[in-house]
Specification:
Elements lengths: L2 H9 L6 E11 L4 E10 L2 E6 L8 E6 L3 E11 L2 E6 L5 H11 L1
Antiparallel strand pairs: 1-2, 1-4, 2-3, 3-6, 4-5, 5-6
Length: 103
């Protein structure tokens, strides 16, 4: 994806995100896992830094503290960062506890 398109996708999100610094495993559909740092989160998505290449459109599973595992689609990837949209929203009743555990 060209950098301009990646930035448009990045700027297209509608929710504010909460800053975090949380180490997490991102598991691919084939079972391969990659270590990443989730740097911000919203109830419907997150941005992470990852040393290994992750492809736009790839489906990952991420485990968030308190709330459990969520499937996410990689919407953009740029310079070691990825933006992901969660397939299911983090439940509003748990979100504040998830953020607290990730900080």
């Amino acid at each position: 994806m060209p950098a301009r398109m990646a930035m448009m996708a990045y700027e297209d999100r509608v929710e504010p995100r909460d800053e975090t610094l949380h180490r997490a495993m991102l598991c691919r559909a084939d079972g391969a896992a990659r270590l990443a740092t989730i740097v911000n989160l919203s109830p419907n998505g997150f941005m992470a830094r990852c040393d290994e290449a992750i492809t736009v459109g790839e489906t990952l599973t991420v485990t968030l503290p308190v709330a459990g595992s969520f499937v996410a689609e990689v919407r953009w990837a740029l310079g070691g960062r990825i933006g992901c949209k969660l397939a299911q929203e983090v439940p509003p009743s748990l979100y504040q506890f998830v953020i607290a555990a990730m900080r």
